[in-house]
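Hey, sorry to bother you again with one of my protein questions. There's a protein on my desk that I can't quite get my head around. No rush at all, and the record is pasted right below.
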Amino acid sequence: MKYLAFATVVMAVAGANPGHAGSETISSSYTSTAPKACRMIGKPSEEDGSTTRVCPGKSGLVVLINEGDLREVVSVGRNREAAAREPAAQAWFGPFSSTGDRVEWRAAGGKPFAIIQRWQIADNSEQDKRGGPVSRAMLAVTRLPPGDVCHVAYVDVAANPNANELARRAADDFARDFKCGTDTVKTIGQSGRTTSLTKR
């Protein structure tokens, strides 16, 4: 029975991602998007205080973060200009939003194919102790080149105790085959208040 259970686990792992080799080694590494780790582009806008910063990534890629009207968009490319042309550069949410300072890079054979980021989405239906909207956490999975850069999956952190594991599995299983502009961004695991806030 023990052998049977082990065999079942091996088969599940090998078959988890039929579009890619089951024997490939997938790993995580991390970079920072904290302002001190990035290069600020110009000065904050006098009109709305919007800012742009470029942060070093992995394998020659950079992370572009644009913030305006208390909403962030994040994209990735070989340089700032390339990142700004990607669909991810237009992937903003209706509520106020911001990202954490750490980016997780999922890579196969040393080549990154997706990033995972923690986002904070403002929930205007509930106020915090300061009278502002409550922030709710979500993980977003974004596919990387070759091909377009765009969001492929969201995981509600509060609704899923294993949110990090779910996000990694989503990145590994379908980020590389996801077709930006055609495929629909998936909600992974249990839906919650945060993932409902992503709908514009």
